[in-house]
């Protein structure tokens, strides 16, 4: 398997990350996950754009152009002959003697690799259970930062309660999932938290908004409360790797009749059409 190291493809053995890498010590970096379907990147440009935006928000200058990075990511996918899977990539502020402030002469370190992965068809069909967890993360959740402790602890708590995802809330307001965006559907209208500093503006979220416009489904970027979540007709989550997953049970209480809802199904189908797959599930 080939690895992307800065702007070169190298073999795994050639990757030698410093113990003083700031990504390792401070989580001082940003990342992206891009889905590969049938050998092609899905919304690759959007992910690369967000990568540069996240980097810019932490004042990290990526020392290659978007075109070079896009080309390298394509080469990585081809070299590893990935059919279905994803690319993970991250960039850190690099290695320097440990100190909180930026190093005076730091060289960012970019790493990228691919993984094989199939679509989560069973979960898409049957839906998942979720658990409310207080959102104690910082106030720049719009940055796809390597600092994921808040997300990690929330997901762990969900898993320990036999739930697939943690639905995060700041006080009474539902924000997003630990690794997904969260939506409620009431009387035919889809609601989700606005794309401000409290959530990551998901690429899948943007695709869903486009799908809703196409299908004429009313979509409102308006936050809802924990209490409202329980009375939604349908609830679902979205992410690059999970696509659109119905949430059928929240905090051990069924949403609607406790089975995936009709509107969520329509979204899944419309989303799948956007993938342009030769073989559908
Ligand atoms: N919110 C968080 C906290 C995430 O980690 C993710 C992705 O993993 C998302 C939302 C969904 O974003 P995307 O659709 O771009 O994968």
UniProtKB/TrEMBL annotation:
Keywords: Aminotransferase, Pyridoxal phosphate, Transferase
Record-level GO BP terms: amino acid biosynthetic process; carboxylic acid biosynthetic process; D-amino acid metabolic process
Catalytic reaction list: D-alanine + 2-oxoglutarate = D-glutamate + pyruvate
GO function terms (MF aspect): D-alanine-2-oxoglutarate aminotransferase activity; pyridoxal phosphate binding
Cofactor names: pyridoxal 5'-phosphate
GO cellular component: cytosol
Cited Gene3D superfamilies: 3.30.470.10, D-amino Acid Aminotransferase, subunit A, domain 2
A Pfam family: Aminotran_4
PROSITE patterns documented for this protein: AA_TRANSFER_CLASS_4
Entry keyword Transferase: yes
E.C. no: 2.6.1.21
Superkingdom to which the source organism belongs: Bacteria
Family: Belongs to the class-IV pyridoxal-phosphate-dependent aminotransferase family.
Oligomer status and interactors: Homodimer.
Function: Acts on the D-isomers of alanine, leucine, aspartate, glutamate, aminobutyrate, norvaline and asparagine. The enzyme transfers an amino group from a substrate D-amino acid to the pyridoxal phosphate cofactor to form pyridoxamine and an alpha-keto acid in the first half-reaction.
Protein name: D-alanine aminotransferase
Organism: Planococcus lenghuensis
